[in-house]
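**Archive record**
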Amino acid sequence: MKKASIVFVLIAIIIGLLQLYLPNKYNNLYGNDTDGSRLMNVLKLGTGIWDFWKQSQRYSAEQVPDMTPQFGDTYDFIVIGAGTAGAAIAARLSEVSSIKVLLIEDGPHESLYMDIPLIAGALQKANVNRNHRSKPSDTYCQGMNGKSCALTAGRVVGGSSVLNYMIATRGSSEDYNRWAEMGNDGWAYKDVLKYFKKLETIHIPELESDTAYHGTDGPVHISYAEFRTQLSDAYLEAGKELGYPVIDYNGKNEIGFSYLQTTTFKGTRMSSNRAYLQPIRDRSNLHLTLQSTVTKVLINRTTNQAIGVKFVKNDKIIHVFASKEVILCAGAIGSSQLLMLSGIGPTKHLTELGIDVVQDAPVGENLMDHVAFFGLTWAINASISLLMSEQLNPINPYVTDFLLKRKGPFTIPSGIEAIGFINTKQPEKHNCLPDIEMLFASSTFKENYIFPDILNLKDSVRKKWSKYVGTYGWSNAPILLKPKSRGRITLLANDINVKPEIVLNYFDHPDDIRTMIAGIRSAIRFSQTKTMQALDSQMLKINYTECDNYEYDSDAYWECQIRLIDSTIYHYAGTCKMGARGDPTAVVDPKLKVIGIQGLRVADASIMPEIVSAHINIPVFMIAEKAADMIKEEWNYLKNS
């Protein structure tokens, strides 16, 4: 590696020498002249890469070590999935020294390069993504290859918190009060707020004193990005021009606009692995086994008690046992798949696949997701937005500033800088539940050669987008926060290695498409403010063949575009719905215990009875924190932790 780095530095020097004819000083995103010449930037880049490689080696050594249990080993608790929830629960349970915990993950360790905020999107093309695809549809994802949405899910220690865009949102208090009203005692906002605070260390100066809503000593660090463009400032000003306040959307009210609160710390990603596991890597009562695929939860059919799990590692089948509980944290897709493979699910469906039914339950139903429309982009004349080609150009200071200082635009999560929450039905009310989120990016996404791959766009759409490569601009993506449509997940085989069938059913309920159209019209009004027009913002009117028969700007036109360029933002939830015992739609009770099975809980986004008006990473951390306390309380450990 050292030899390769020397070669890279030499190449960088040659590139720099070739550019000596260029001026030593030049304008850039920082709004002033650079510190040093283009040649100096190239030379520093070589140093930065070498330094980053050395840090990567140290980072790898700081992980919880991989171990392989022996067949028949017994633990107090077995946690399946080392993602957002699983890492947190395993860490919290192992705080009690007398508890022995096994954490099972079928992916590898997180690497340092995965923690660079700007390149988050590229990770979805890495081998730590499960690469699910939705079942083809004729009513949504029409602009994608095979009319199928690409569905990201993490296969790595840290799970999807390693692949997400680091957006830290909780949702509205009404979200959780509605959970309680649905029969889930203990899940009202007054009950869960303490866990939001417990998981958090806030690094936003104006919020640190707000101890009513924010925590200052939790494992998950939340910050603003280390750099922001002038466009993000304009975005907030435009919001104020429309009458919206600049707010702390994780405080009392959610409606309004804000710079993005992110799960980052000192310019890098704060995954569940970094937050919960790395600090306790030497804890002897926590064991982690990697590259281990759980194929079944072992259940004693006489007592309907979960007694352990069966998993495969290095082509070897291993059974391990839990003296107290098995806790399933594999996400809305993985947890529902594994429950069904273990005999817990719809009787008719399991019987058709030859699976012995242990417990009839509506597993896989109630699938919810937040769907976004990525078709709204505005060009500007000023060179104050992010272009990936400029960010990666070695003559510019951006890469080097991140590698050496953890500063600059590489600290912006995938170019997303600000966020807004609105209610399209009652726009004048600022203390109600939002129905649309506005996600602002200081980029057109047309320059980002990775983004079309992430969306799995078909060639005809890619060609339309490619005309705008190199365009300075910004994007505003409306996101449907409270969908009324419901999808489902079903098995295609009695085999963990066969991916399940995922039917998203976007816009199955007509109210959903109406709300999205209202969101688009709100975004367009936003672009027409004096603030955004001062930037000479010009909407890119991309004409897709599929929508040629509709009058421009009609509701039918926008519905066509929505169904063409709609996309998941990876918030799958609800497939193991939480509800009161006796609720025929519930899979787990308010203690997250699988109804009808002893010693088995589910704790991840799949338990949400209704999806929250937020990106779900922080709510899943909250679910994990609350689950850990409920488990400790049941087994009389809470006073000892």
User: Anything to note?
Assistant: The longest helix spans residues 38-61. The CA atoms of residues 20 and 39 lie 7 Å apart.
